[in-house]
């Protein structure tokens, strides 16, 4: 397919690279033009001069940008030049409200919009093993799936517009609770004078095991947080969860508490630390 890709950050750049490797004709746009030029030098394709340039004559336009406002800006710039029947796939984590609004806007213009947030982090993007949860029109999902499958290990259609974003909120609720529990466990291990390696070996094969434990226990125990999904981005995501919970009446007390713990991490200078840095506030 002819694919446009907007947003070449730590997630977007490797995702777009998988598309190029799969043989798609890729035009990329990034607010920093130098980053787009470097991507093209490494992977081929074309660096677009603008969002509209990246979208023009594309069958599929993929977004991996920052927030609701970024998505609105990109979609409004792209729709006038996308061909009829084109699909916008948004991998940004946003509110369900903006996903529904963009889907309505695209449908009124004869195009489709899919909200398709991802889970798996930078490592998943690089390895092409992201989990993607998708909301939107069934036929559009079916057409987009073979393309976005280039960087996915699992793609699940959750329902209508906004359901992909709601599912991503569930994902972040789960992560927030697990990482806080893990942070407390690592801090307790240190206070108790236990060997963290032996503790991990003892408990990681039982009911306490998790992806976070397998991938973050050792680095948390060492106080290493300079990698992975940044605290600033996690707080943005948890803010979306808390807003949605206020609207639908869901009780997310632990999530709200962990969000405040992340605010403490930010105050410690950890805005760009990995989310596992919840341990930092317990080990001061």
Q: Key terms for this structure?
A:
14% strand; 9 strands; Rossmann fold; 3-stranded mixed beta sheet; N-(1-d-carboxylethyl)-l-norvaline Dehydrogenase, domain 2; 284 residues; alpha/beta; 6-stranded parallel beta sheet; 12 helices
What would you say this structure looks like, in words?
It is a single chain. The protein has 284 residues and is α/β, with parallel strands linked by helices. 53% of the residues lie in helices and 14% in strands. It has two domains: 2-159, Rossmann fold (3-Layer(aba) Sandwich); 166-282, N-(1-d-carboxylethyl)-l-norvaline Dehydrogenase, domain 2 (Orthogonal Bundle), CATH 1.10.1040.10. It contains twelve helices and nine strands. It has a six-stranded parallel sheet, sandwiched between helices. A three-stranded mixed sheet has the order 7-8-9. The radius of gyration is 20 Å and the shape is globular. The N and C termini lie far apart (52 Å).
